[in-house]
Specification:
- The structure is a single chain.
- With about 500 residues, the protein is of the alpha/beta class.
- The chain folds into two domains: about 5-255 and about 460-480, Aldehyde Dehydrogenase, Chain A, domain 1, CATH 3.40.605.10; about 260-440, Aldehyde Dehydrogenase, Chain A, domain 2.
- It has 15 helices and 23 strands.
- It has helices spanning about 40-55, 65-80, 85-95, 100-120, 155-170, 185-195, 210-220, 235-245, 270-280, 300-310, 330-345, 380-385, 400-410, 425-435, 465-470; strands spanning about 1-5, 5-10, 10-15, 20-25, 30-35, 125, 135-145, 145-150, 175-180, 205, 225-230, 250-255, 260, 290-295, 350-355, 370-375, 390-400, 415, 415-420, 440, 455, 460, 475-480.
- The structure holds nicotinamide-adenine-dinucleotide.
- Nicotinamide-adenine-dinucleotide binds near residues 230 and 287.
């Protein structure tokens, strides 16, 4: 059995009470590793190390931006060299098809390089201020925030981690990272790269364990200056409340129930292909998934027929054999998704395709499910209101542009959305009405490090990726210089 440890203050360590938790291969339901189960004591130790290091006069934040950049680039190079090894571990731990894990590693390398470059770009602004007190010059500089707690989910374990770690470190912060207990293995590997990269002890800390212990301790701590969290809206809300204790900076990347609007004049083949990427990619375990497909009534039958044909051709299997879909991440997630499908049936929706656990051949034991298409949905249905986080496409219909927009926005979430049409003006008109932070026209789900990522409404606070993703980890300091020092004569003698 493989044992993996926490990394606190430059040392690999067991948890303070010696406990471990099981890590599963979702394709076989077998335990593949035991991970040190961090305690409150471990978390406090990690926070203390990160705080000490942030305050250290020779610490990470005192390194020049150039030096930090060089170190980050060396980490990216090492990750790139070991792409296949990381991708295999990711697939073993999470279940996703190997080619998707390979893309995740490519993206992780690219994110690190982007932020290594970004920190060397000009930053801050000079300000033209009034001369009421005599001539003054103001300008701003960007500074790190301090100790950052980074908490991630299980759907993109390496990538979501790097999405936070790279900008946080580029900016000069120290960090405590807590991955999801479902998928800690690539994080441990990544911390080995960080260990070898020459960061001062205490700059980066890894504490695995439950959200209610490690995560809660991080979000409540007075010594943590920022929490950046990606996960469910419910947990995000509790972190938001805890963060108020010391008015922490906060970044929240939360759930979604995103609309994918398909007009009758869209290229049907293209719309079907992108709709599949929208809902079946990564087994539908994607925050931005196009889980509500809103189709113009006149093409509903044609669209559903083609989507079913395409879904029926999808291969399902162990992610290491690179099928179109691997298993869901855990038994719990499988139960949750099957539960939603049962509820849809009870509420009168029609299962057009799939809807069952998949147990053929090598999929006998793992947490596999068929790609599922549900039609006849309306705004009252549970599967339309709640995030399912699985490969379940729920189809609604509309007759007019106004109705499509109304249905699309009738949700508490606002993460993503897309429009398919061959009418350019209509595409832009509709997309501008969608209340969501990430939108696409005639495509679904492409993400780029250069473009900001984040949600409106209950889908989150702040943005990741892009230059904005770096600024989230920085404070802005205003500096004003009196250009004519000396007496100004404000008070009477
Ligand atoms: P989750 O909220 O259950 O867990 C996320 C992380 O938070 C895990 O590390 C977990 O251990 C930790 N956690 C749990 N309780 C906590 C607490 N009380 N305090 C602090 N931390 C706690 O989410 P999940 O099931 O791992 O991931 C799925 C969710 O993540 C979905 O809702 C999905 O939409 C969302 N997500 C959002 C984005 C985005 O960019 N907006 C990206 C990926 C996933």
């Amino acid at each position: 059995m493989k044992f993996v440890l926490n990394y606190i203050d430059g040392k690999w360590c067991e948890s303070s009470d010696g406990n471990y938790f099981d890590v599963y291969d979702p394709a076989t339901a077998e335990v593949i590793a035991q991970a040190a189960k961090g305690t409150e004591d471990d978390t406090k130790k990690a926070i203390a190390a990160a705080k000490r290091e942030f305050e250290n006069k020779n610490g990470w934040r005192r390194y020049s931006a150039q030096k930090r950049s060089e170190i980050l680039l060396s980490i990216a190079d090492e990750l790139e060299k070991r792409k296949e090894e990381f991708a295999k571990t990711e697939t073993l731990d999470n279940g996703k098809p190997l080619r998707e894990s390979m893309c995740d590693v490519d993206d992780a390398v690219s994110y690190i390089r982007y932020y290594a470059g970004a920190i060397r770009m000009p930053s801050g602004v000079t300000l033209n201020v009034n001369d009421g007190f005599g001539p003054m010059q103001s300008f701003t500089v960007k500074e790190p925030i301090g100790v950052c707690a980074l908490i991630t989910p299980w759907n993109y374990p390496l990538l979501m981690g790097v999405q936070k770690i790279a900008p946080a470190l580029a900016a000069g912060n120290t960090i405590i990272f807590k991955p999801s207990s479902n998928t800690p293995l690539t994080s441990v590997k990544f911390f080995k790269l960080l260990e070898n990269a020459g960061l001062p002890s205490g700059t980066v800390n890894l504490v695995m364990g439950s959200g209610s212990v490690v995560g809660n301790c991080l979000s409540k701590s007075n010594d943590v200056d920022m929490v950046s969290f990606t996960g469910s809206t419910a947990v995000g809300q509790s972190i938001y409340k805890n963060a108020a204790v010391n008015i922490k900076k906060i970044g929240l990347e939360l759930g979604g129930k995103s609309p994918n609007i398909i007009f009758a004049d869209a290229d049907l083949e293209g719309a079907v292909e992108w709709a599949m990427i929208g809902i079946f990619f990564n087994q539908g375990e994607v925050c931005s998934a196009g889980s509500r497909i809103i189709v113009e009534e006149s093409i509903k039958d044609k669209f559903i027929k083609r989507l079913k044909e395409r879904a029926s051709k999808m291969t399902i299997g162990n992610g290491l054999h690179d099928p179109d879909m691997g298993p869901l991440v855990s038994e719990n997630q499988l139960k949750t998704v099957l539960g939603f499908i049962e509820t849809a049936k009870k509420e009168g929706c029609k299962i057009e395709y799939g809807g069952k656990r998949y147990t053929e051949g090598e999929c006998r034991r793992g947490y596999f499910i068929e790609p599922t298409i549900i039609s006849g949905c309306n705004q009252k249905n549970t599967v339309i209101k709640k995030e399912i986080f699985g490969p379940v496409a729920c189809i609604e219909t509309f007759k007019t542009e106004e109705e499509a927009i109304k249905i699309a926005n009738d949700t508490e979430y606002g993460l993503a959305g897309a429009v398919f049409t061959s009418d350019g003006a209509k595409a832009l008109r509709v997309i501008k009405e969608i209340r969501a932070g990430i939108t696409w026209i005639n495509c679904y789900n492409p993400a780029f490090v250069e473009a900001p990522w984040g949600g409106y409404k209950k889908s989150g606070v702040g943005r990741e990726l892009s230059m904005q993703g770096l600024e989230e980890y920085q404070e802005t300091k205003q500096i004003t210089i009196n250009l004519r020092p000396g007496k100004i004569g404000w008070y009477k003698d």
